[in-house]
Amino acid sequence: MKVKDLLSAGVISLLLAAGVMALILFTSDCDLFLWAAEHFGNGPDALSGQVVWITGASSGIGEELAYVLAAAGSKLVLSARRPQELQRVKQRCVEQHGMRSEDVLVLPLDLLQFDTHQAAVTTVLQHFPQIDVLVNNAGRSQRALWLNTSLAVDREVLTLNTLGPLSLTKAVLPHMLTRKSGHIAVISSLVGRMGAPGLGSYAASKHALHGSFDTLRMEVYDSNIHVTMLCPGPVFSNALKFAFTGTPGEELGVVNQPTENRMATDRCAQLSAVALANRLDEAWISRQPELSYLYINQYLPALSRWAAVRIAARRLRKLRVGEQDLH
């Protein structure tokens, strides 16, 4: 075969491969690495027997992740501020997924009470011999325009969403370093990778998580400790009901409508578990069009910034005349 023919065949192969990848991307609800992991890698049952500590386990993604891992055979530590809701989640894990009661530890925890985090780690290690995976899921969303957001709200969001996970991870990490084994996961967001109008404080808190935990990944690599950043897009949950606004002490109080373009919470939890089982560094979990926006932002940042300010400008004009809200 002539060199020209070989080059032509190579170009055709590359175009076909690019076409297949594009088709997968535009029909998928996660990034290509996570898609490959779900279809060809480990399933959640790879976490069977491992002790997984989930914060924010009383509702939303944290609750659904508990059910996925219960079905996979993991042992669970469930933390949140509402003990009654944690007991409800535990009961379902036991009754519907065949877990033994002693394999689910309910541990109420307030991320803002930093001085209690070390004692919480001690409590877990008194119940289980080790902590294999810590999933930093707890946090709150926020909706308000940047200029209308009180600095007090900025401080609250950053303290809860960023310093809370940092504090708990710092309490858990020495145990993992001693064992030379462990896995730290953080539920971030797509806005941890790109800004969005009306989510300034929330985006800041998630961007900060990426900077901190990406650094941690490098520092603990030689100690056999893995760090996974999970980045969901819009998901059906009660996040907007309890979201911060721009005013201290105020909650948004919005309930998701079935017609919204959001991912089912159990699907998000399933993909999150796959990312954990395959120890991915980062996973993007979202339906379209947000997933494509993130790819453009990642690989064509100049184009992304050019488009973002124009799309945001149109949205802000609608906001100012009451045609669209910040949900």
Structural class call reads: alpha/beta
Strand order of the largest sheet: 3-2-1-4-5-6-7
C-alpha Rg, in Å? Answer: 21 Å
Largest sheet: 7 strands, parallel
Q: How many beta-strand segments? A: 7
Rounded to the nearest angstrom, the distance between the terminal CA atoms is: 59 Å
- The percentage of residues in β strands lies in 5-15%
**Count of helical stretches:** 10
* Helix-strand string: HHEHEHEHEHEHEHEHH
- The averaged pLDDT comes out at 92
Principal-axis shape equals: globular
Low-confidence spans: none
Helix content: 40-55%
Structural description of this entry:
The protein is of the alpha/beta class and 327 residues long. Helix content is 51%, strand content 11%. The protein contains ten helices and seven strands. A seven-stranded parallel β-sheet has the order 3-2-1-4-5-6-7, sandwiched between helices. The protein is globular. The relative contact order is 0.14. The mean pLDDT is 92.
Please give the structural blueprint:
Blueprint: H1 3-27, H2 32-40, E1 51-55, H3 60-72, E2 75-79, H4 83-97, E3 104-106, H5 117-127, E4 133-136, H6 151-179, E5 182-187, H7 200-220, E6 225-232, H8 265-277, E7 282-285, H9 290-299, H10 301-320
Parallel strand pairs: 1-2, 1-4, 2-3, 4-5, 5-6, 6-7
